[in-house]
Design brief:
Helices cover 15% and strands 44% of the residues. The protein is mostly beta strands and 94 residues long. The protein has a 7-stranded mixed sheet with strand order 1-7-6-2-3-4-5, covered by helices on one side.
């Protein structure tokens, strides 16, 4: 199913709120390589209450828990190419 970037961000945010595990493919800002990440939201491990030193949404980023690296990572919203939630694959059209 084809969706827009805005719809993909909404689906990711919805999955984050419920703590569902999902997969996302995007292009990394640092080196332009493609990254596939299994992640989830709602993880509170390691949080100190201090919060982030910047607002990720101001930079078109979504913060999620990376299941493989076992740490928080950011997804570049502008370069999302594919999202898989509950076994349904969504291809993102620019």
């Amino acid at each position: 199913m084809n969706i827009t970037v805005t719809e993909a961000v909404q689906k990711i945010e919805g999955a984050k709120k419920t703590g569902r595990i999902f997969s996302v493919t995007f292009i990394k800002r640092t080196d332009g390589s493609q990254r596939e990440m299994n992640c989830r939201g709602g993880v509170t491990k390691g949080l100190t209450g201090a919060g982030s030193s910047y607002d990720p949404s101001a930079y078109s980023l979504i913060t999620v828990w990376d299941m493989q690296k076992r740490n928080y990572r950011n997804i570049n919203c502008n370069t999302i190419t594919r999202v898989v939630i509950d076994g349904v694959t969504f291809s993102v059209i620019p």
